[in-house]
Amino acid sequence: xxxxxxxxxxxxxxxxxxxxxxxxxxxxxxxxxxxxxxxxxxxxxxxxxxxxxxxxxxxxxxxxxxxxxxxxxxxxxxxxxxxxxxxxxxxxxxxxxxxxxxxxxxxxxxxxxxxxxxxxxxxxxxxxxxxxxxxxxxxxxxxxxxxxxxxxxxxxxxxxxx
Length: 162
Known about the structure:
Layout: E1 4-5, E2 29-30, E3 33-44, E4 47-59, E5 65-66, H1 73-98, H2 106-131, H3 138-154
């Protein structure tokens, strides 16, 4: 499956939305994005002494779509922010991981953290759509864009390395 990593140097274009549009919905575009997570734990004599993690924010072109006759740059900004919200949660996840110390039960801790961040991500994506009325509410959209920009900047040291 094709995937694109989040990068502060690249903004989505409508060409990135390669999926088949769903004609049975009022939606004019859908962004499919998510966080992938993997880890390895170093153990010696059943004692955990270190770990590595990999957290990535991805956009999935084949599962993202738009009705090209009904979209514009404002809607594209709305879709980009969905991807930025995914990146924000990847940064929050990395920040939480950075605070972890090696311990017994680390695998479960990491898996639980991943589940929690996925839930928080889904909740924020839904709240964003409701409060911006899927981009129709221009003021609501602007507030979200400003808020996410500030939050991304605050977590800059945890950003995805494009």
